[in-house]
Amino acid sequence: MTTGIGARPAAALRPYVDSYVGFDLRGLAAGVHCGPPSGQLTAVISLSEPLEMAAGVGDGSPVTRFGGAAGGLMGRSVAIHHDGRQQGVKVALTPLGARAVYGMPAAVLAHRLVPLDELLGSLGVELTDRLRAASTWPARFAVLDELLLRAVARGTDRAPARRMRPEVAEAWRRLVAARGGLQVGDVAAGLGWSRRHLTERFRGELGLTPKVFARVLRFEYAHDLATARGRLPWPEVATLSGYADQAHLVRDWKEFTGRTPTAWRHGEVLLGSG
Known about the structure:
alpha+beta, 4-stranded antiparallel beta sheet, globular
C-alpha cells in the first residue's frame, strides 16, 4: 500500500517551488522504483531510514544513502531502492528555484544527486530534523514553507548577474506551457536569438539543451498518462503526448527509463499501488 498527499507551497514560494508531496510506502515487496526525469528539480527528505538512490537505472550508477537528496534536471531515470517501506517528502522545484533556494544555477546539479545539507548547510539539517519531529502532513508542509522561505530570503541580496537571464526564463516557460511541443528554432526566433545562442545559454543555466528539455517534458506527460488509472493503450499515450507514432514513444521510453514501455509497466513497483 502507498499513500500520498500533495500540497501547494506558500504563495511567495510558487515561482520557485511547484509542489510538495508526502508519501508513505509500506507492504510492498522490496524492489527498485524508477523515478522518471521531469521538467523540475526534485528534493526528497526521508522521514525514516536513509534513501538508497542511484542517478541511473540498470547502468551501474553507484547506490548512495541519503537522509535528504537534491537532484538536478535529469536525462534518465533515478533508481530508488527500497525494502517495501519508505516515508518521506518530495519537493518539486522549478529551475528558477535552483538559484533562489540553493544559490546556484540548475546546471550545476544536472544529472546529479547531492546531499541536501551540502546545498543548504545548517538550514538543511534543521529542515530534516523538524520534518521528522512533526507528526502530521500539514505540520510538515508548514515547516517546508517556513524554511524554504528563509532559504530564499537569505539569497535576496545576490547580485543581478547571478540571476537567470530573462530570455532563458521565458524560453523555459514557453516549453513547459507547450509540454515540449515547440520547435526550438521558433522559440529562439520569438526571443530574437539564434537557435545556437539559445541552446548555449539554456544549457548553461539548466544543464540540458532546450531540445533535450522539450523531449523530457513530452516524456513526462506521456508518463503521467501511462500512470493514470485506466491504463491507456500505448498508441493512445503516444498520440496524446505528441509523439509521431508508438515507435517514437518506445525509443524515448527506453532512453529515459532503460526499459521498453511494456517492461516498465510490468516491473515498476509503485505503478497502480497508490
